Amino acid sequence: MAIWTIDPTHSEVQFKVKHLMISTVTGTFGTYEGSIETANDEDFVGTSVNFSADIDSISTGQEQRDGHLKSGEFFDAENFPKLSFVSTSMKKKEGDSYTLEGNLTIKGVTKPVSLNVEFGGIMGDFYGNTKAGFDISGKINRQDFGLTWSGVTEAGGIVVSDEVKLVFNIQAAKQK
Fold first, then answer.
1. pLDDT, tens digit, for every residue of 4-51?
2. Chain centre to alpha carbon of residue 59
3. CATH code (residue 57)
4. Among candidates 101, 111, 97, which has minimal Cα distance to 140?
């Protein structure tokens, strides 16, 4: 068994959502942590994953929008300072592709989610550390998690899509 921890200097945690249904806005979480517990480093089947991100670290590159996302109309960072994910299973599909199932908690609401994982491999770094890489993606409906703010333009257009794409590029370091 081995424990791996996310290396935040070589990882990205993003979400993407349609704005006005014509373009995509990308947001990131700047502060997060996670661990991966493996029984077998070769294929990561049966891996256990725990992850959390600080809501206050949201950045979309626009301060006013970030403040709105942190407010009670969206994430309510004051009352729900973190989102979390706890895995329930990780199954190999084929090759380096896996399905990661687990429970995502946002704004006090926990729902099961299914994520696609592409295992990038294992490599040693310049300092003798063992690193593993993963590209993780999935989709959630923000309404399912109590992120229910909606706006409609004068012409009847939807301001923010309910579908949110999750994109995580993770490098994890094996603990010695």
1. 999 999 999 999 987 766 678 899 999 999 999 998 766 788 899 999
2. 14
3. 2.40.128.110
4. 111
* Residue count (the chain): 176
Contact partners, residue 78, CB within 8 Å, separation at least 6: 72
Cross-strand pairs, 110: 105
Residue with tokens 């996302």: 69
| Domain assignment of residue 99, given as a range | 2-174
The Cα 44–Cα 92 span in angstroms is 8
pLDDT in tens, 86-143: 999 999 999 999 999 999 999 999 999 999 999 999 999 999 999 999 999 999 998 8
pTM, rounded to two decimals: 0.90
Domains in the chain: how many in total?
A: 1
Beta carbons of 88 and 123 less than 8 angstroms apart: no
Q: 149 and 110 in contact (C-beta within 8 Å)?
A: no
